[in-house]
Amino acid sequence: MRENLRAINDPRLSCEERISSLKNYYDCSLSKKTGNGEINNHIHTIYSFSPYTPAMAALKAYEAGLEAAGSVDHDSIAAASEMLDACAVLGIGGCVGFEARVSFKKDRDGNPSPFASKKINNPDSEGLAYMTVQGIPRQSIKKAAEFLAPIREERLKRSKAMTVSANVLLREAGLQEIDFDRDVYGISQFAKGGEITERHLLAAAAEKIIIKYGKGQDLTDALKQKMGITVDPKIASLLRDSENPHYLYDLLGVLKTGLLPRVFIQPDENECISAIKAAEFALSIGAIPSYAYLGDIEESVTGDKKAEKFEDDFIEELFDLISAFGFKAVTYMPPRNTLKQLLNVQRLCDQNNFMEISGVDINSSRQSFNCREVSRKEFRHLIDTTWALIAHEKLSGVDARYGLFSFNNPIAALDLKERLASYAEFGKKFDLFNPDESAEKAAVEIDKGNY
C-alpha cells in the first residue's frame, strides 16, 4: 500500500492515476472514520504552493477526521476536479474555489475608492486585496480556468522579473543564481494550469542556500552575515536541526520576511483586476464572491507575517464597499484572529447579509488540517454554512437557478439565514460518495416546495 500512498501524492502522475491510487488505498487500507465535525474550505495544493496534491489533501483531511474539505489555490482552479473526485472516494464533503488578488482602487463610477492607498488585507500592497471565489459548480470549472489564464500569464512575467532581482542578491552573497525555467517554473504546475507564486521563487532561493551551507548552524549564520537576514531564535533552533522534516517550509518563512520585500515587484491591474469585475464573473458562473478578512495582526500564527494593522480601523466602511461591489460572503479563519475581532466580523456580516465561510489556508507540511475552533459555540454555525456551500455547489451543478444567490431560485424569497439553514440540511443528507446524484434528488424536493 506504500506504493499507492506515494502515487497519491506524486505530482508527475495524472489526476486520474492519483484518484485510482486513492481508490485502491481506501479499499485496502482505510476503515470508515467517524468524523469529528470539523471542516476546512481553504486548502492549497500543488497547483499554487503546497506539499499536497488534491488527492493527498483530501486524504489528509479525511485522516484528520474532517467531514468536509475544499481546495482554494492562488489564481488556479486546476485542483478542482481531482479534489471533488477524491472527496467522493473518501465519502467526505467536497467544495472548490480559487483565491485571487484584486484591485479596490476604483469604485463603480471609476473614481478612486477610499481604499486606493490603504493596505486592506494584503501585506504586500496598497489598494489590492485578496478575495476567494467559492462554491464553483463543476460545469463552470473550465470557464474559471479561462478567466484565470491571463492573470496567470501576467504573474508569470512578474515572477521572472523578481527572479532577476533575487539573483543579484544571491550573487552578492556568493550563492548560485536561480535558473527560472528549471528552478522556479520547473517546480511549479504552471504547465498544467497551476500558478507560480512568490513561494516558488523563495523555494528556489532556499535550495541555493542549502546547497551552499547545508542544513544547520552554518546556514543560520550565513543568513545573517551574507544576506543580512536576522532569524528569530525559535526558527533558528528549527533550522539548526538538519533532520527537521519541515525544513524547507521553515526556511521559506524566514525568506518571506527577510528576502521577499527586497525583490518584490508590485503587481499591476492587468494581474489584479477590478474587484467589481471579479465579483461579477463569480456570480456569472454560479459561484460565490467572498472577501477574505485578515484583520490586524499582533502576532503571526504562521510565522511569516509581521505585526501590522489592516482593515479593523475602517472595517464598517469596507464592508459597505464590498456589498456595493457585489460580494456575497466573507471568509475568515477562526485560529488567526481574536474572538473580539471575529465577533465584530460576524456582526457586520449579519448587517450586510453576507454568508460566512470558514477555512484555514494549508500550504505547509507543518500545518495541521484540524480547526478545532469551529467547534466553539461562537463558530459552530460555520459548520452549517460549509454544508450549505457544498449543497449550493452541487445544486448549481444541476441548474444555475438553484444557486444560493440566484434570483431564480425557488427559495429566493427566503432571507439568507433561512436559505443557508435549508441548504445546510440538504448538504448534510447528501450521499457523499455520490453527491451529484443526491443534488438531483434535492432539486426535485426544492421544486416540490420541500425545503
Please outline the helices and strands.
Blueprint: H1 2-8, H2 15-29, E1 39-43, H3 54-63, E2 68-74, H4 80-90, E3 93-103, E4 128-134, H5 141-172, H6 180-184, H7 198-213, H8 217-227, H9 233-239, H10 247-258, H11 260-263, H12 275-284, E5 288-292, H13 315-325, E6 329-332, H14 339-352, E7 355-358, H15 381-398, H16 416-429, H17 435-448
Parallel strand pairs: 1-2, 2-3, 5-6, 6-7
Antiparallel strand pairs: 3-4, 4-5
Helix pairs in contact: 1-2, 2-4, 3-4, 5-7, 7-10, 13-14, 15-16, 15-17
3D structure, described in words:
There is one protein chain. The longest helix has 32 residues, at 141-172. The protein has helices at residues 2-8, 15-29, 54-63, 80-90, 141-172, 180-184, 198-213, 217-227, 233-239, 247-258, 260-263, 275-284, 315-325, 339-352, 381-398, 416-429, 435-448, and strands at 39-43, 68-74, 93-103, 128-134, 288-292, 329-332, 355-358. The model has no long low-confidence stretch (mean pLDDT 95). The protein has 451 residues and is α/β, with parallel strands linked by helices. It contains 17 helices and 7 strands. The relative contact order is 0.12.
